[in-house]
Design brief:
alpha/beta, Rossmann fold, 196 residues, 7-stranded mixed sheet
């Protein structure tokens, strides 16, 4: 299901997980890798392809939500403000949301737009984890250094402790099992709590 109105999102009381990040961070490739479907989320050489709230139902018991990227310069100002509005509405109103994943390209220094978005999530009490993407592009020691530096930046700037994080690569499935196990653990607890 795809739409731009949070009120029209699926009404089933099952947990959902939102994926969001700057355009060109590898979100569609990561979603396709996680769900083992090559063309489920549309990948493109042109960033900004996702422009709606896209719900994918997984195993009939949870939703993966693909949200539009933020911080892409070539999207018009009018479109950007529209994205912001329904992205904000989604995070503020969506009761089924149990966790969000903020995607960050592991090759880059912490970007202001990402840090500001995470700060907004924290200030609004929206639980999230960080997914570092494109780990196949770097050597293991560089990955470790970049992640440590990134998490240190978060702790110095706004957090008592850094959010949970995952290191992934869509090309070699790095991090897939860990991410899906994390989702499974939350789902088990969710359904256990909602049976009471």
């Amino acid at each position: 299901m795809s739409n731009s109105d949070v009120k029209k999102c699926p009404s089933e009381p099952i947990p959902e997980y939102a994926f969001i990040g700057r355009s060109n961070v590898g979100k569609s490739s990561l979603i396709n890798m996680l769900l083992d479907r090559k063309h489920l989320a549309k990948t493109s050489g042109r960033p900004g392809k996702t422009q709606l709230i896209n719900h994918f139902k997984v195993n009939d018991n949870w939703y993966l939500v693909d949200l539009p990227g933020y911080g892409y310069a070539r999207v018009s100002k009018r479109d950007k403000s529209t994205f912001q509005k329904y992205i904000t509405n989604y995070f503020e109103q969506r009761e089924q949301l149990v966790c969000s994943f903020v995607l960050v390209d592991i090759r880059h220094e912490p970007q202001k737009v990402d840090l500001e978005f995470m700060q907004w999530m924290g200030e609004n009490g929206i639980p999230f984890c960080i997914i570092f993407t494109k780990a196949d592009k770097l050597k293991p020691n560089v990955i470790e250094r970049n992640v440590t530096k990134y998490l240190d930046t978060l702790v110095e700037g706004m957090w008592e402790e850094a959010p949970q994080h995952f290191i992934t690569s869509s090309s070699n499935t790095l991090g897939r099992d860990e991410l899906l196990a994390f989702v499974d653990d939350i789902n088990i607890q969710f359904f256990k709590d909602n049976k009471k």
